[in-house]
Model the fold of this input.
Amino acid sequence: MSHKKDDMSTEAVGLGRRRFLNTAALTGLTLGVAACNDKPETAPAASGTSAAAPAAHANSSTHLKPGELDTYYGIWSGGHTGDMRILGLPSGREIHRIPCFVPDALVGWGVTNESKAIMGTKPDGHLRYTVADTHHTHASYKDGNYDGRYAWINDKINSRIARVRLDYFVCDKITELPNVQGFHGIFPDKADPVDPAINYTTRVFCGAEFAIPLPNNGGDIDKPEKYRSMFTCVDAESMEVRWQVLIDGNCDLTATSYDGKLAATNQYNIENGVHYEDMMSSERDACLFFNIARIEEAVKAGKFTTVGTSKVPVVDGTRESNKDPKTALTAYVSVPKNPHGVNASPDAKYFICAGKLSPTATVIELSKVLDWFDGKLAELDKAIVAEVEIGLGPLHTAFDGRGNAYTTLFLDSQVVKWNVDAAIKFHAGDKAAKYVVDRLDVHYQPGHINASQSETRAADGKYLAVGCKFSKDRFLPVGPLHPENEQLIDISGEKMVLLADHPVRGEPHDFIIFKRDLLKPKQVYDLDEFPLATKDPKESGVTRNGKKVTVRITSQAPAFSLREFTVKKGDEVTLILTNLDKIEDLTHGFAIPKYNVNFIVNPLETKSVTFMADQPGIFWCYCTHFCHALHLEMRTRMIVEA
Ligand code: K7E
Ligand code: CUA
Ligand code: CA
Done:
C-alpha cells in the first residue's frame, strides 16, 4: 500500500462510523484539543463488534468467593501518586501500593531516613522532588519469563527510574537519568547479546521523550535544531547509568528482543519539531533499533563523548551518523505516523508499532533488522513484513501466545484482535487473508493494553486488561474529575468478552499481568537486613553526643520498649524503631504529633527518623496501626525539655 494512504485521510477507512470519528479526530488534533472530549458513539451493538454486555459465564470468572485468592498478579503504574500498585486478577482488587517517587504517610515514605536516602534529598535534608508521573512498569526476566526479582517504574517529570524488590514489595533504589527530560519508555533486557549464559535481565533501557540542549545549562536555547534526546542503559543490579545514545526523534515506548541483541523505541517526532504541527508534518517517523553489542563495543573502545558534568559515556546514534550498516549502532526503520507503542511478540520474532495518526499497525521482523546490520539486507525498510489497517488511533498492542495481537484504538474506542501471520500474508499480496479476527467496544478511549503473560514466552491468552482514559458514564458521578476505567476482557475464546469495569485514579498508563506462582514474597523481614536494628529490647534508650541524640526503641504488641524518653529543645534527634514482633501481619506504627513524623515498621523491620526537637512539651508518640486489643494504649511519651 502507498504510504500516502496511511495517513488519517477519510478515504483511508471505509466504515461510516469510522469516517465520522476520523473527521472528528482530525479536527480535534488541528485545534489542539483531545478529540475524545466529544462523547463517542457508544452503541454497543455496532455491527462487526462483539457485544459489550458480559456473557453469562463471565461474572463467575471475575467474582471470587470470600477467601478465594486471585490467580494472577497485576503490577500497575500509579500515575501521579508516584507509586506502584499491586492488583489481584481476575478480581481486580487492589492489594497493595508501593510508594516510590512521592511521599506516602502510611509507610512513612519520604519521612524515614532510609526512604529519603532512596528518594534523594537537597543539602537541607528536604526531599528533592515530591511530585511524579509514572507511566511504565516492567519486571525482570529469566529464560523469557518473569523471574520475580525486580520491577522497574519510570517517573516522566523528573526522569527517574525506581526499582522495586519483588521479595518484599518495596522500592530499594531510585536513579535520576542525566542529560534527558521526559524519561518515558522503560524495558529490561531479556538476555545478554553476547554471553548466552546470561539469560536474564542485567540492563534496563530507558527512552527519553523531550529533546533538550546538551548540556542543558542555558546555551542553545534559541537553536532547537540542536536539541536532542537520548536513550539510556541502566545497570539492573547497581542501578547506575551505563551508557547513553544520542538520537533523533522523541521516544515513546521501549521494547527488547528475547535474544538480547536489539532494543527499540518508537519515535514520533523524527522531524525533531518543537511544535505539534511540526511533529506531525511527516507521513512517517521511525521505530529506532539499537544494536546493543555494538554500542557496548564502542563504549569499551572509548568511542564516546560526555555531556556537561555528566561522566556517562554517550555514543552517537543519530540517523546521519549511522547510515552504513557495517558500523551502525542504530537503525531507523520508517513507520507511519507519530507511532505509539512498540511491543515484542511472545514468539520472539516481531516488534509491532501502532500508527496512532495512521490507522495501521506495522510488523517488523527482528531477524531482518539483524540481517541489515550484518549487511545481508540491502534496504532496511524490507524488515517491515506487514503494515495493515486495523482502525483509528492505534496505540498499544498485547498478545495471546496463539498468534493474535490485540491493539487499542484510541479514536474508535475499541480493541481490535488481529492475526499477525494473516496480516503478513495480506501485506505480501494475499488479499483474501482476513487478519482482523474481532473487535470489541471499550469504554472509552483506550491507551495501554496488556494480556496475561503477554510480553513473555509464556503468553497464555486468558485475560486482557485495557486502560481506558475516559470513563464518562460508567461509574457513579463524583464531580468533574472522573476516574479512568480499567476494563478486564476474557480472551480465551475466538471472541473477546468484556468481564468487568474498575475505576482507577489517574493515570496508571501501563501494567503487566502474570501468574501468581512466579512470585514468592516474604512476609517477615530479616533483622540482619537492617544495620541499625535493635535486636534486644534491653538495648533501648537515649544516648547523647553533644546536641545529637539517638533514641532506640523496639515495639512488641502492645508496648514500645520505652514508656517515655527525654530530649532537650534544640537537639537533633534520631529515633530508631525496631519491630521485634516476628509473626506475619503484625505491623506497628509510630506517629509524633506536631513533629510531622508518621511511619510503620513491619515484622522484624527497622526504620529511623531524624528531626529537630524545636517545640518543648509532652508529645504522645502513638502506634498508628491497629495491632492488638491494646493498640490505643500502645504509646510512649516524648518529653522535650525547654
Ligand atoms: Cu505508555 Cu501515553 Cu506514556 Cu501510551 S504512553 S497511553
Ligand atoms: Cu502497635 Cu497498634
Ligand atoms: Ca512525526
